[in-house]
User: Fold this.
Amino acid sequence: MTPTTRRPVVGIIGNSYSINDRYPVHAGGTMNSAAIAHVSECLPLLIPTDPGYVTVGELLDLCDGFLLTGGQPNVHPSEYGEAETEAHGRFDRARDAITLPLIRACVERGQPFFGICRGFQEVNVAMGGTLHPEIRELPGRVNHRMPPDGTLEEQFALRHKVVLSEGGRFHALLGRTEVLTNTLHGQGIMRPGKRIVIEGHAEDGTPEATVIEGAPGFTMSVQWHPEWNAAEDSVSRPLFTAFGDAVRAWARQRR
Assistant:
């Protein structure tokens, strides 16, 4: 019997929800698992992101990389020195307690992570940056939120351009300086954190793609949702493929 080749493990950051406002769960979109399994070609593992169940050290030892997913709850503003307001929406403080130190540990170790939407915002906060609670309220900005109605295909449709820095890592990977993306977020970067390099902006100036300067590992993060149609989209597929390559490289050197 031929032994099964072990796929590198990608920890998918889960979010806390309640089913029917009664039954608490940790959840993650199946499109995240599909992108990791079929495009990154790694083993997706949903993480119950709560310090009552897991520790950062355990996750670093168990997983070879991390997908910092999107989600409706936002990073609590106290994590970047601001008071909570109604505009900040709802929160997942247990997730904050795991992901922010996890990101900093990954940066130091060179362990790969890929940030998406809230994950993009978490990376900025973890590195000392701040967020604006409602991008559409800023002068000159457009509404980046998900359309309230329509099918999933309509809500995740490509809706705006992102201009990438010439010579940056996104440009090198994608081979172009302009891409078309979806947009499903209300918050966004106000002040970039230390070592955060913004390599992509929407046409209204909203930061959309970042890397961490001097980090030894994969630290790409995007404000949009590349997990949608990841296997077919010409922007999403190379991002998830490159992430998978980085995770495999980490797993090989660790073993």
Notes: The chain has a mean pLDDT of 93. Residues 231 and 240 are 9 Å apart (CA to CA). Helices lie at 30-39, 56-62, 93-109, 118-126, 152-155, 169-174, 236-254. The chain has one domain: 9-254.
